[in-house]
Design goal:
This protein is of the alpha+beta class. It folds into four domains: about 120 residues, GAF domain (Beta-Lactamase, 2-Layer Sandwich); about 150 residues, Beta-Lactamase; about 70 residues; about 120 residues, Heat Shock Protein 90, CATH 3.30.565.10. About 50% of the residues lie in helices and about 25% in strands. The protein is built from twelve helices and 16 strands. Strand 12, helix 11 and strand 13 form a beta-alpha-beta unit. Bound molecules: adenosine-5'-triphosphate and magnesium ion (MG). Adenosine-5'-triphosphate (ATP) binds next to helix 11 and helix 12.
């Protein structure tokens, strides 16, 4: 801007040929001399009458030996003025001089207006870039400490500050303190371990008031940290709270400029406080996310434990049914046989009755064995996973007319928790096909794809509508089991189009 005003002064000076040309610029609604041609003479800060008149009426004014023209935006906002001065020996300004000066004023107006606009756009661009990088940092899901460090570095650049620090609030039953681990200055982080109670130092004041704090000269402020003052050249300082939506102070930000550099304004403080609010949302989210992850892990462990207990219990009941109750039934059957042998020929009715009892006992024993098998297929322990699946399939084939194809491809030995889960899933899928699908064919494939194991069970049955599902536990149980193994389950079904259930597990070495 300076060089543009100097160029305007030079050009106007050579066109109008006065003794002196002064360009005034509007700073905070006050006109101040910015450029003077020739520059040797001393210019007073007073605004001459001609200049005051020309910016009031927005047209050229001649007062004594001074010709003034305003520099204005297209919306008539005053950006400055040009004053051409002649001494007593020179001729008066002619009409042509005034017209020429008006032209210079107009050209200067559009040039300054454009330059200001360009400057504002550059500033906006910088702000946008910083806000974007601020947002990117906030969205990175970093640990709160790491996020605050990045924000301090980012905003230092954007604020045109020289350094800063940040800290998080540590809460105990009795008090809240701010803790800080580093101080950023001259493009690098320095060790700076501090704790402030409420009211101690600038962060402590912010902790107590929950309000931003501005300091003109950090060195002379009674709340300044003496160590920082001795190590760094710190002038203007701003400290703001990091406050969440529940008005809880989670931490603070502090920025510094060196002595002699422009001071931070309350506008800066308000802007930084709103950045603090955004950071607070990210801190809250990160903490929530962490506690959610922890809870999830706890639930998973608990469910896994529960499923393991369930499997153990099933094993136990199956053994009991087989070894205890089964043996009792077999014993009963033998004694019935003995009893039947003791009966004489004229006790045919009683013999028939005993025979009938014997058949019912055989039926009950078979059912019991079947139940025990369902509870805990012995083959999974004894023969391994593939044989257990194949045996399960041949059982179903025996009882139904289903055509079932099974394919194993590069299937490794998996941890027993995975094998049990997959076995139960195949079992539930097949039970569902028999119960609901009215299918004629089922394809089961267990295939290794890269580092993943994929189980797929597809039938050509009537399919089902997800929205119309009610009450069953089978599909829910499958999802639960897969979730516990960190796997994926995909259930595809449409009325009349059959059903495909695919489970994908990441390879984990067998225990
Ligand atoms: N292969 C399939 N073909 C057609 N419908 C199916 C199939 N699998 C599941 N369904 C439908 O989805 C519903 C839910 O299945 P899910 O296994 O969750 O429960 P269920 O079999 O009804 O009862 P549970 O498994 O608790 O004994 C079933 O009632 C059925 O309507
Ligand atoms: Mg079911």
């Amino acid at each position: 801007m300076e060089s543009l005003l100097a160029e305007i002064a030079r050009q106007g000076h050579s066109l109008i040929r006065p003794e002196r040309t002064i360009v005034y610029s509007n700073f905070d609604d006050r006109l101040r001399p910015a450029v003077d041609v020739p520059s040797s003479s001393k210019v007073s800060d007073e605004v001459p009458e001609g200049v005051a008149l020309c910016v009031r009426y927005l047209k050229p004014c001649v007062v004594d030996r001074s010709l003034c023209v305003p520099i204005v935006t297209t919306q008539n906002r005053v950006l400055g003025a040009i004053e051409f001065l002649r001494d007593g020996s020179s001729p008066d300004f002619s009409t042509q001089d005034i017209q020429l000066a008006e032209c210079v004023g107009q050209v200067a107006s559009s040039a300054v207006d454009r330059a200001r606009l360009f400057f504002r756009i550059e500033e906006w661009k910088r702000s946008m870039e910083t806000l974007l990088s601020f947002n990117a940092t906030v969205n990175q899901r970093l640990e709160p400490e790491a996020m605050l460090h990045e924000l301090v570095t980012n905003v230092t650049g954007f604020l045109d500050a020289d350094g800063g620090a940040s800290g998080l609030a540590l809460r105990s039953d009795s008090e809240v303190v701010f803790q800080c681990e580093g101080f950023y200055f001259a493009d690098r982080w320095h060790a700076f371990h501090r704790r402030w109670k409420s009211g101690e130092g600038l962060p402590g004041v912010v902790l107590r008031t929950e309000f931003p704090c501005l300091v003109e000269d950090y060195r002379t402020d009674s709340r300044a940290d003496r160590d920082l003052v001795s190590r760094f050249d710190l002038g203007s300082t701003v400290c703001v709270p990091i406050k969440n939506a529940r008005e809880q102070v989670l931490g603070f930000f502090q920025w510094h400029r060196r002595r002699g550099r422009p001071e931070f304004s309350w506008q800066d403080a308000a802007f930084l406080e709103s950045l603090g609010n955004t950071a607070a949302v990210a801190i809250d989210n990160s903490r929530l996310f962490k506690s959610l992850e922890l809870k999830n892990a706890q639930i998973k462990t608990l469910s896994l434990h529960h499923v393991q207990r369930l499997e153990e219990e099933r094993k136990h009941i199956a053994r009991e049914l087989h070894d205890e109750t089964g043996q009792v039934l077999i014993g009963l059957k033998l004694r019935l046989k003995i009893l039947s042998g003791l009966l004489t020929g004229d006790q045919q009715d009683a013999k028939d009755e005993l025979h009938e009892l014997g058949s019912q006992l055989s039926g009950a024993t078979a059912k019991l064995k079947d139940l025990a098998k369902r509870l805990r297929p012995p083959t999974l322990d004894e023969l391994g996973f593939e044989s257990a699946i194949r045996q399960l399939v041949s059982e179903i084939r025996r009882h139904t007319k289903l055509q079932i194809d099974v394919e194993f491809h590069s299937w490794p030995e998996l941890p027993s928790s995975s094998e049990t889960a997959l076995f139960r899933i195949v079992q539930e899928c097949l039970t569902n096909v028999v119960k609901h699908a009215q299918a004629t064919r089922v394809e089961i494939s267990l295939v290794t794809q890269g580092h993943r194991q994929v189980l797929r069970v597809a039938d050509d049955g009537i399919g089902f509508d997800f929205d119309a599902l009610s009450g069953g536990l089978g599909l829910i149980g499958m999802r639960e089991r897969v979730r516990m193994l960190d796997g994926l389950i995909d259930v595809q079904s449409q009325l009349g189009q059959g059903t495909v259930i695919a489970v994908t597990l990441k390879t984990a070495r067998a225990e």
